[in-house]
Specification:
Elements lengths: L6 E11 L21 E4 L2 E4 L3 H19 L18 E2 L2 E2 L10 H10 L1 E4 L2 E4 L8 H7 L2 H6 E2 L2 E2 L2 E3 L12 E9 L6 E12 L4 E9 L3 H15 L16 E4 L2 E6 L10 E3 L16 E3 L5 E5 L2 E7 L1 H19 L3 H4 L1 H9 L1 E2 L1
Length: 349
């Protein structure tokens, strides 16, 4: 998406375990615990870390729940396929657009590109092919896929692996587990297992990059960071058994701008919609005016706004309100207009 680089958000997030955490390596040790945490070779020794893919998956899942709570029916389910949704056809006609709300955006685009949908013994086709380009895919994606991406296009957000700071120790501990006999309520025979977890009080650091963003996407990201800060999100395995408690800390955030912004005031920052990207379904009024202006500097071609203290709080507040406002006014029907065209031109094959 976009062969230009107009803006970037950079920040370093500190994640501290407030209880035992286990991101499983997928294999047991030779002569030790049955479950062990992932490790990587770094600084000339093996050390525990939190994979960026796990962190991004947890953040995406959490934000999906928030979006479905605030505005039901506008976020897709990445694991639901169009051909599995038998509600899509009823009495020889496609149902309303919201019947496809749960279908993964990537699957909708695949169906749209192929021009045919099969449900049971029925096949529906269209008499008009659509040329899907990146702009149209982005414009028609749900809010979550716009930020995190799908199999149709890369996402805006990147979360790196969370490593231990230099010279820090990643303490681990071994915990006993046992299966419960459903009849006696005691320990089941031969159902004991051991697991090795990262101990409480271990701090990891990860880098977050958000590229070519809209202002509401900053709010979506910072809502997740706020919940991590308030210890409302758990990571890793065994979350229902008390594992995975963490606390995040974000003390500074920088926004880099490369595209010209001649009419921007110091208390504003611009989102993607202000950079002539209407083809992507962005908003022309995509800017925020903040109560406290950030500190600005120049490095080469980049203009860098640094948010900390009051300016960071102002950014969190304004972007969160923008996220909720855009979500409330999200036009689902506009992004799924092709379904109405399909219904009019479809025929039973």
């Amino acid at each position: 998406m976009l062969k230009r680089l107009v803006n970037e958000l950079h920040c370093k997030l500190k994640i501290t375990t407030t209880g035992p955490v286990l991101v499983k390596s997928g294999h047991a040790s030779v002569s030790g615990p049955d479950m062990t945490p992932v490790r990587t070779w770094r600084n000339n020794h093996w050390e525990v870390y939190l994979p960026g893919s796990s962190l991004k998956g947890v953040v995406r899942s959490h934000v999906e729940k928030i979006c479905r709570t605030l505005r039901p029916g506008i976020v897709c389910n990445p694991f639901v396929k169009a051909n599995d949704n038998n509600r899509a056809i009823a009495q020889g006609a496609l149902l309303a657009c919201n019947e496809f709300a749960d279908v993964a955006c990537s699957d909708k685009f695949e169906v749209r590109e192929k021009g045919r949908l099969k449900v049971g013994s029925q096949i529906w086709t269209r008499d008009k092919d659509y040329d899907l380009d990146n702009a149209r895919v982005y414009a028609d994606s749900c809010p979550i896929c716009r930020l995190f991406g799908s199999t149709s296009f890369i996402g805006r957000l990147s979360i790196g692996d969370a490593y231990l700071p230099a010279n820090a120790q990643g303490r681990v501990e071994t915990r006993d587990g046992v299966g419960i006999d459903r009849l006696t309520g005691g320990a089941a025979n031969r159902a004991k297992f051991d697991l090795e977890t990262v101990s409480s009080g271990v701090t990891f650091e990860t880098d977050i990059l958000l590229r070519n963003f809209e202002c509401w996407q900053v709010g979506m990201l910072l809502v997740a960071v706020a919940d991590l800060r308030d210890e409302l999100v758990r990571v890793g395995s065994g979350r229902s058994r008390g594992l995975g408690a963490v606390k995040a800390d974000l003390s500074e955030l920088t926004i880099h701008t490369l595209a010209p912004t001649p009419q921007r005031t110091p208390d504003q920052f611009w989102g993607l919609g202000k950079f002539d990207t209407a083809a992507y379904g962005t908003f022309a009024d995509d800017l925020l005016t903040l109560a406290f202006a950030p500190t600005e500097s120049t490095r080469g071609l980049r203009r860098i706004a640094t948010f900390s203290g009051d300016s960071l709080t102002a950014l969190e507040t304004a972007s969160r309100e923008e996220f909720v406002r855009r979500l409330d006014n999200w036009e689902v029907a506009a992004g799924m207009q092709w379904q109405a065209d399909w219904q009019r031109g479809g025929q039973n094959g």
